[in-house]
Design a protein that fits this description.
The structure is a single chain. The protein is of the alpha/beta class and about 260 residues long. Helix content is about 40%, strand content about 15%. It has eight helices and five strands. Strand 4 (about 210-215), helix 7 and strand 5 (about 235-240) form a beta-alpha-beta unit.
Length: about 260
């Protein structure tokens, strides 16, 4: 993050038409000093996959691979939905439901946590010992549970119920061609705040270490609407966008369909 901030200062100098000075250079100096101290401490080395930093790295590895794949099979490349009378309707070969979107994420997460990725993971009395009185049973679209070192025994249910899992994700799919007034489109839009709040509650309750909403947005609709949710977005919930804008930002939009 510090190196990114330093790079931003360099680009500001390059494009701003004048060199930094005074307070700007004190800020740059502080960035350099902090980077230097962290490098000496070894913070630039890859974190252990068991630490929060390591889990975050693994999630980002999966997310970046997901974007590379989406560049070739994403629904943004195809006709999408033009109405019931449109005989050219086609969403592409890879995704025909939100469960398909979740599957694509799972395939990438499995490369980081072999055998540890699950769909529709239940948050209920039999999986959590901290379920609050009156708290409804819920299901997490995609959950990462690294249980490779979890040992079965007489107290397994208790230990499992108290465990903080690696990551929880909720999935949304916005179909190319849907209008803002389309019923299913509206339903999914209205469900986003509840999903984000659910993720925030789960990470606050220490049921997971990373939580994120993953929006597959074939029509690039989400980027135009997400600001309306910024004020109510929990700080610890990631916004993982999978759509044309994310590809353009990474220079992946020129990838041809496989």
């Amino acid at each position: 993050m510090l190196r990114t901030a330093l790079f931003a200062e360099q680009r500001w100098d390059h494009h701003g038409g004048q060199e930094s000075g005074g307070p700007d250079m004190r800020y740059v100096g502080a960035l350099l000093e902090r980077i230097r101290s962290l490098v000496i401490a070894g913070a630039h080395l890859s974190p252990s996959p068991k630490t929060l930093g390591g889990i975050r790295d693994k999630v980002m590895n999966a997310y970046e691979r997901l974007l590379v794949g989406y560049a070739s099979w994403g629904g943004y490349r195809y006709r999408g939905w033009g109405g019931y009378r449109d005989k050219s309707n086609y969403s592409g070969p890879a995704v025909w439901s939100e469960r398909d979107c979740g599957l694509k994420l799972c395939l990438e997460l499995e490369k980081e946590w072999p055998g540890g990725v699950h769909q529709e993971f239940p948050i209920a009395k039999w999986t959590r010992s901290d379920l609050a009185e009156g708290e409804a049973i819920q299901r997490v679209d995609v959950a990462v549970l690294d249980l490779a070192e979890f040992v079965e025994g007489p107290d397994a249910a208790i230990r499992f119920g108290e465990r903080t899992h690696e990551a929880f994700f909720e999935i949304k799919w916005c179909v190319k061609g849907w209008s803002d007034g389309a019923r299913e489109h509206k339903t999914r839009l209205e469900s986003i705040p509840a999903d984000v709040a659910k993720l925030g509650n789960n990470i606050h309750a220490k049921r997971c270490r990373v939580a994120g909403l993953v929006v597959f947005d074939d029509g690039d609709w989400w980027r135009q609407q997400e600001r309306a949710l910024e004020t109510s977005w929990p700080r610890d919930v990631w916004n993982l966008y999978v759509g044309p804008s994310a590809l353009t930002w990474r220079g992946l939009d020129a990838v041809q369909p496989s």
